Every structure is written in C-alpha cells, then in structure tokens.
Amino acid sequence: MAVSSRTSFDNARKTYNVNRVINADALFNLSAYEEYSPLFLSTTFPMSYGPSFASITATLTHSFLCFRKQIWTQSRRSMREQVPEWWYGVIFVAMFVFGIIVIKVWHTEFLVWAFCLSLSIAFLYVIPIGMIQAITNQQVGLNVITKLIVGYALPGRPIAMMMFKTWGYITMTHALGFASDFKLGHYTNIPPRSMFWGTSHRIPHNLRIGLPTSIKLKSLPYTPGRFNLAYKLGCSRIFPTCVARHKRMHSFPNTEVFATGSIVWGVIGPMRMFSSGQIYSALTYWFLIGAVCPLIAYMVHLKWPDSFIRYVNFPVIFSGPGAIAYASGLNYVAWAIVSFIFQYHIRRRHFSWWIKYNYVLSAALDTGLACAVILIFFILQYPKNWTIGLTTVQGGGVILCLRRRRKEFAL
Fold this sequence. Notes:
Layout: E1 8-9, H1 30-36, E2 40-41, H2 44-78, H3 85-105, H4 112-136, H5 143-153, H6 158-187, H7 192-200, H8 202-219, H9 226-245, H10 253-268, H11 271-274, H12 285-303, H13 314-319, H14 329-349, H15 351-381, H16 398-408
Antiparallel strand pairs: 1-2
Helix pairs in contact: 2-4, 2-12, 4-6, 5-6, 6-7, 9-10, 9-16, 14-15
C-alpha cells in the first residue's frame, strides 16, 4: 500500500470501490461491507487525523493553563462594551429559529438536539482557539472532531454530517472573523456600534441569496437517497474517474482527499474505523496525548521559567500536519525554508528590517497575487472569450467529463 496517497484502498490494495458497500439509494450496506473489505488508508491520513485529535484536547488544556486568568479578566471587561448584549441575543435567537426551520422543513436527516450540540461545540472552543490564533496567527480546526462526533451520534447520515460540521466548525470560524473585524475597527478608531452594523449587513445578503435557492430546492421532487447519492457518488466516484481519464493528469489533491473523507466519515462512519478493535482505533490515544503534552510543558516551565519550553505551543504543533494528506513534500519543505529564513535568520541578524518590513512584505505578496488574478483575467482571458486553457483542465478535460458523468447518475 502506498505511504502517501490521497485515495483509499481495499484488502487487495486496489482503490476502494464504494459502490460495493452501498445500496441503490446510496445507504450503507453492512453485509456487503463485511463481504467486500474494510477500508484502508495510506500513512498520510493517520498522520493527519491523529494530531488533529490531539489538537482538540491540547487546545483546552493549553488555554486553561496559560490563559485562564486573561480569559476571566477579559470576559468581565467585555460586559462593559458599548454594544448592548441584547443586540447579539436578537441575532442569535433569529438565526437559531432559522436553523430549526431548515432542519424541520427540508429533508436533511438532521435533528434539533444535534443542532444544539454543534452550537455548543462552537461556543466551547471559540475563546480558547481565539486566544491561540491571536498569539500565533494559526487557527485550530474543528472539522475532524465535528465529523467524528456526528459520525457516532448520527451514523449513516452524510447530509446531517455536513450540517453538523458547518454549525460546529464554521460558526466558530465566523465568530473569530467577526472578532477580527472588531479588532481592526478598534485600531482604526471606528465606534463599536458602527462596526457591529457594518459587519452585520452580510446577514440579509446571505438570506437573500440562500433562501430563494433553498425554496427552489424544496420545490424539486425528492427521491430517496438523492442527496446521499449526490454527496457520496459525486465525491467518491465521479470526480476521481474524471481525474484518472484526464490526459494531463491534474490530480486535484484537495478534492481527492475530500472524496476519501466522504467515504471515511459519510459512508462507513467512524464507528467502523476508530472504535475499539477496529483498524485505526489506536488513533484515539492522540486525545490523551494532546491533553497531557501541554500539562508537561507547563510543569517544565514552572521548574525552569527561562527554558525554550515557554515558546512551545502544542495546539499549533498538532495542527501542523492537518494538511499533510493532500499536501506534498514540496509544500512543507517550502514552508520550512521560508519560515527559517524570515522567522529565524533575518529576525536574528537583521531585526530592524524584520520588525519594519517582514509583515508588510507578506501582505504585499498576498495583495500582488490578488491583483495578478484580476489582471490576468481581464487582460488575457476575457478578451479571448474564455478560450485560454480550452484544451486543459478548464476546457476539454475534467470539467466536460464531470458534466457527462453527472448525467449518468442524474445528479
């Protein structure tokens, strides 16, 4: 079996055929699964999932040990902010009601208690992850843990899994983005109430776009397994087939990893992957490792306050391998080289330049990339009637293949 691969395998070391373990309505078939094969993953997937488990518990332990006093102090000060608390309460209640309506009206296979649980996860982690992000500029992801929880709570419901992940993970992400906007407004002397209304204007725009789409989908005839079919087969069958057929062999690593994840979490489920006695059950020990490592570092820091251990941040360390499943060695090597040059060599040898231009250079490169995309499109692509790249991935390759394959499955 391949050490680094973005696909899954069966016991014959061939690509896992997900169609052999699902029924015609795309629901999981246990007897067919037992007759066929367990799911095997390349080494990069456990290397990604294990540290992700550890980062979840390490975040809570690290935040409690290092930031508990700051969190308590800031939480008391936040009660005296200029934006009334009931403004936030009104928005929360309104969006909570909208969420229940979506769950009850549309065929989502989701439950209200799971909706409340997903919001509780976001509420629990938003402050610890926010503290770590404010110091390190790295955000610990909740995508794996939310899929693990809903995989045990609501097995065999891929649409419910996506909704649980969205409300549990993306809610936390947007909350931190909202706080980041307020921080920028504070630096630019914009009043908090003006920032509140300025950042809240996106709510009616999202409703204006999302609600008509949802109503249109509601008007379409629903057939059993339609959404499951679109999710499971569309990700794990159609796309990899088109990629394999493409003559230029565009690999689409992120999408391939997503397709493999749809099999792990949406089709087979974590119960048959990570429970006691299963193939990857040892990965659950990473939860314990993540909880213990910050405690050890904290005790060492108390004994030797000036040691290098005070710079060690285990939540960030465990979050590092999160992209290893779809990243290549080139990605991590390039990151290590650039980090070593700018964050170690230049910082130690040319500190005055580093403190003045390092982050300005980073922002300039990001801005240049965004401007280059716009210029390339309007100067090259638009005048040529979108014909540039017609024989590559944008044209005669994967996209046309996806359209043909989508008609085969009536997606």
